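User: What would this chain look like folded?
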Amino acid sequence: QVQLVESGGGLVQAGGSLRLSCAASGRTISRYDMGWYRQAPGKGREFVASVRWSGDTTNYADSVKGRFTISRDNAKNTVYLQMNSLKPEDTAIYYCSADDRFTHSRYWGQGTQVTVSS
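Assistant: Here's the prediction, encoded as structure tokens.
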């Protein structure tokens, strides 16, 4: 079982940047597809970005393309989300996910709050 802990959230002004980190423990992430999702109060959890276990394929929600970058460092067992040009609508709790494509198991972190002021 893999456990995920997000960090790096906080309060920033519109146009600012943050880098979120997701530290995994218990299992190596080398064979997990990793992703970021976010959820605003009263709304469902929405997809933000993902990177395949191989590291050769990334996907982004249209709302964050060109502004966010997902990356992974398997040696550190960590995945990152670099967020630039932040907008108030980016305000949400951001969750890290791990998807084991070999067992079809999916895991979630506890989330980290990102608040963007106008």
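The chain has no helices and eleven strands. If you want, I can go into more detail on any region.
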